[in-house]
Amino acid sequence: MSISVLVGAQWGDEGKGKMIDYLSSSCDLIVRFQGGDNAGHTVINEQGVFKLHLIPSGIFNKGGQCLIGTGTVVNPDVLNEEIKQIEDAKVDMSGLKISGKAHILMPYHQKLDELMEAAGGIGTTKRGIGQAYAYKALRKNLRFEDLLNLESIKDKLEKIIPVINSQMAVYGGEAYTVDAMYEKCVAWAKRFGDMIVEPVGYLHKYIDEGKNILFEGQLAAMKDIDLGIYPYVTSSNPTAAYAAVSGGFSPKKIDRIIGVAKAFSSAVGAGPFPTEEFEGAIDLLRGSGDNPDDEFGARTGRARRLGWLDIPVLKYTNLVNGFDTLALCKLDKLDDLPEIKVCVAYELDGEVIDYFPNTEDLYRVKPVYKTLPGWMTSTKEIRRIADLPENAKNYIKTIEELVGTTVGYVGVGPDREELAV
Ligand code: GDP
Ligand code: IMO
Ligand code: MG
Question: CA-based angle 185:112:296, to the nearest 5?
Fold first, then answer.
């Protein structure tokens, strides 16, 4: 039996979807443990090209079960659409379950996110994520288990809707009615009733039977609501320890924590980004958007901000997650660069600092760069880390030494098979 947790090691979009798809073949259960449809997890395999938002990226693993876990916020209409799209590709969805304790992301959450962003936000995905988590904390949400008890829902909505409408009024949105929301719940109960499980017992059965369980994180520690670059963060905890909270088991049971990093840096949305480049080699990696691995958001299509690899970020996310190993994706994107810069430290007010600075100071830090020679040859066909060009191995060794962890997987292309181990 083993419990593994896979999380983003930078600012999101590192290649988590690809790695979950790859790793899931040896797993019995894959659990998405936080976030909502702000996620865009790209999976490219023999069944097609998929950008997953709510469904765990292990859905393509025949025989494996998938759970949308307790710590998530789920827009049922988005989930319904996503299920249809994947079913169209003839993927077996019968193993997909939803935690009864997962929160329902309602139409008004999404509307409020849109209105609040329009009034001056942080560049959210406008999927209603922050609102759904805010009303979770206020105890003014419905959960999937409520769909199994429709009589109770109307009473709950009677208490929720006036609070929502008072916020709507502040931002100039139209009022919602209890009846319209109740009707939606009736339809969702019919659609999802059979997929809803009591999550703690469900998960512990897998643990007791000695099964392999893989937890899939969304986004990454730099955007963790507590440990990230607040306020330019998401509203959940995309850090490994939260898998245990969401799953309802002891953190002592986690066997392996895998961090996924991109071989350079990218971010979407506002906030400090010390190694960001606006022109030159790294900026050219963005591509046109025509290829599935070009640097455009898998959820919103926004051009991603790009920069050199940032070791202080990886050291910090290793500190808060405790990676057993890193999966370094998109190494192939650096194949044609004669020189590669790596930010090895930050300078603040003229001094190199040995701690990770707070958000405001992060705007002011100056990256200290080390320049490494590139390898100027294609890595796309390589399947063993030992077979990578010497300069690529040197790049990886530099990362391992500076971050203080191993690199166990190296992505050399967007397809499931394009991986060196
Ligand atoms: P996630 O949110 O962490 O799952 O990552 P995204 O799917 O949002 O973004 C990662 C992008 O990189 C996607 O376009 C993937 O197809 C692509 N990708 C992942 N790993 C590799 C790799 O090793 N090489 C290349 N070229 N592309 C990759
Ligand atoms: P995956 O799982 C990259 C960013 C948004 C914004 C901030 C808050 O594919 O890595 P939110 O909608 O969550 O309230 O937005 O977080 N963001 C992501 N950036 N990848 C994601 O997901 C993201 N999910 C949210 O751009 O800065
Ligand atoms: Mg993504």
Answer: 100
